[in-house]
Amino acid sequence: MIVRTSSRSYPETRNALxxxxxxxxxxxFARIDHxxxxxxxxxxxxxxxxxxxxxxxxxxxxxxxDSKIGIELPLRILLWREGERVMLGxxxxxxxxxxx
Length: 100
Known about the structure:
With 100 residues, this protein is of the alpha+beta class. It has one domain (2-99): TT1751-like domain (TATA-Binding Protein). The chain is built from four helices and five strands. The protein has a five-stranded antiparallel β-sheet with strand order 1-5-4-3-2. A hairpin with a 2-residue loop joins strand 4 and strand 5 (85-90). It is globular, with a radius of gyration of 15 Å.
C-alpha cells in the first residue's frame, strides 16, 4: 500500500478527497466509516474511513480485457488518523496488477 501524510485536518482531508473524486466525474459508490461502526458496538477506534469510487466508463474496458481486475474495482482510499497525523493509503495500479 502506498501511504501519504496529509497536511490537512481529518475533516478537511476527507472533504478534499470527496471533492476531487466528484470533480473528476467519478462516482462515489460508498463511504465506510469504521470508527462509527466501532462506536455502534460500544468500542472506540480513531477516525478511519474507506472511500470507494470509480467510473463504469473507465472500469468496464479494464474488466473486458481482464475480468480478474474486477477484484480491484471500485478503487478505494483508506483515510485514518494516526495520533495527530492524518494518513491516506491506497494500492497503486502496478501493485494491483502484480497481485493478480
